[in-house]
Amino acid sequence: MQEINAVVAGAGIWGCTIARRLAEAGRKVLVIDSRPAVGGNVRCEIDPETGIEIHSYGSHIFHTHDDQVWNFIRRFTEFNGYQHKVLAHHNGKNYFLPLGLTLINKFFGTELSPSEVSSFMKDERHSTALFDAFFRGYTSKQWGKPPESIDPGIIRRVPVRENYDINYFNDYNQGIPLRGYNSLFENLLDHPGITVECNRPYKLGDFPGVKVFYSGPIDRLFDYRYGELPWRSLRFKTERLNITDYQGTSVVNYPDIDVPYTRIHEFKHYHPEDKAVMAKTQTIIMREYPANWKKGDEPYYPISNEQSLALADKYKEEAAKIPNLVIGGRLGEYKYFDMDQAMAAALKIVI
Ligand code: UDP
What residue ranges define each of the domains in the chain, with the CATH number in brackets? Predict the structure, then answer.
């Protein structure tokens, strides 16, 4: 192998973006990942029977309002124009999220106009009824504790609107890579200056004298010397059904507490442009069950509270003392990053 002068440890969005920038700046980059394939939790699997792209770690929809990110990513993939809409199934009925006129008028049997909705929602009976129907159960299942004890910023991820817009995200730029997420990663890493080695974990002290960009769990990097950072995990149950369409859309949320899962993903709906896949008389669905995390489980969501954030800061301070080490990504920074935020952070790093 040619001499390398930078190492990227962790081949998710953050790491692959850094690798590409390094290579384009003329550096010889080695990308390593402890998993057998690149892509981190955005990795997909193509079902050999139907051609359906299965998001193995749960649905990923790329969305951003950051022009720099949007311009960068489109050098490596086209998007298919998919716009994300989410249904919530409550008490036997389907409602379009987010909280807007479509949901509110259906739930209360009203015909409120945009100018009426805000005073209607100021009535605590209305806001409480909505919160209890769509957020209390879902949030308790998702986080394993009542909504009052989680960071309120998490629930604020779901937009609130006074119109009929049922787009789940506020970002106009969104979609699914036309040829799939795996091809996005292949294209990002397809550069003569980049070498990739999978099944290769990183240990502190590997590659002495070479700059390392690390996006694995920050506590693991230090052998958990101050303790483990807590995560919320997920389990998935995937099923192949002999019908063309199970739920008519890509994601249905189940906020009711008596349903053990939080949502059902039906992946063929992410590629409505792929008429051959859409017409298949089979579909693949995946039920998502939130789960407690213990060392060795897949970490999905950082559990942010005073104690965990202080612990993460302690590890970050430790990392900052190590020359030639740059930390980033969701696992490295212990932050609930969306894909575009991880990419934006990688585009800002001085390389
Ligand atoms: N949430 C909820 N009901 C829903 C959807 C979301 O209570 O139907 C809450 C829940 O606490 C969740 C948070 O809003 O963790 C953020 O939702 P988002 O859809 O952004 O979660 P993600 O897709 O990142 O898991």
Answer: 6-38+189-230+302-348 (3.40.50.720), 97-157 (no CATH)
Instruction: Compute the CA torsion angle 262, 268, 271, 272 (nearest 10 deg).
Output: -110
Q: For residue range 130-187, what is the model confidence (pLDDT) as tens digits?
A: 999 999 999 999 999 999 999 888 988 988 999 999 999 999 999 999 999 999 999 9
Contacts of 250 (CB under 8 A, 6+ apart): 59, 84, 85, 265, 266, 267, 269, 270
Q: Are the beta carbons of 315 and 322 closer than 8 angstroms? A: no
pTM of structure: 0.96
Q: 321 pLDDT band (50/70/90 cuts)?
A: very high
Marked catalytic residue, from 20, 136, 263, 330: 263
Q: Which tokens hold the place of 57?
A: 């770690």
Taking the CA atoms of 170, 12, 300 and 285 in sequence, report the sign of the dihedral they define. Answer: positive
Tokens of 137: 């159960």
Nearest CA, atom 20, ligand 1: 157
- Judge whether 288 counts as a catalytic residue: yes
Q: How many CA atoms lie within 13 A of 115 on its CB side?
A: 0
Q: Is the CB of 88 under 6 A from ligand 1?
A: yes
- Cβ 135 under 6 angstroms from ligand 1: yes
The answer to whether 252 touches 196, Cβ cutoff 8 Å, is no
pLDDT tens digit sequence for 184-230: 999 999 999 999 999 999 999 999 999 999 999 999 999 999 999 99
